[in-house]
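Example (one chain per record):
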Amino acid sequence: MRIVVKVGTSTLAYPTGCLNIRHVELLVKTLSDLKNAGNEIVLVSSGAIGMGIGRLSLKGRPEDMPTKQAAASVGQCELMYTYDKLFSEYNHTVGQILLTGADFSHDDRKENFQNTMYRLIELGVIPIVNENDTIATEEISVGDNDTLAALAACSVKADLLILLSDIDGLYTKDPHKNPDAKLIPLVAEISPEIVELADGEGSGLGTGGMATKVNAARIAMEHGVDMVIANGARPQALYDIVKGKQVGTRFQSGKGTAV
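Predicted structure:
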């Protein structure tokens, strides 16, 4: 199975911007084990700006674009150093891919991306994808690695896309405000009601927001890729997700079209 896993900043780092060592180590261990079992793994990782803030000892998220980009530059080094070190402990090699939205809108650049990804996978490498936040301003403003993960999953014809966030999945209401909110285990169609849940009271769940996750699900489902939203605090749940067990919210695709 070819699996694309997107991990958000809230899973990788504390609010201080410093690395959440326990979460990252569990994530890498689980992904390594899934790869040992014969799965092909692609990791889409947020967190460059957040980790750069911690590394630079900034007081909070910068408001101006140059400082955000500087933080991303420093944080990206920290991220890749961490991933390379941890995956190496399980004898796995990683490769870095930095993208912007334009890489998917130009046919030749998209083809180059696909060719590189396919070759990395053939070589047994775990590609680690992130937005090129050091030069792209639009992506930083939106903060939408969810869409990037969906586009990447469709481009490499993944079997499954998993978004790890700080929420268990899509709820009927905002669970932070409504104790009677219920988790929606399965979504077979992105209906107006589902969109309303994401855009309205049910938004603000996770770093990128639920609206971006539902939009990612729409992209994935249109191309025949199932998508799951799950809580990144429990990376071991990836085992059950891959087995098809009920974890989080699964967006079940129909028969999709090729990218």
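Caption: The beta strands are 2-7, 40-45, 94-99, 126-131, 160-165, 186-187, 226-231, 249-251.
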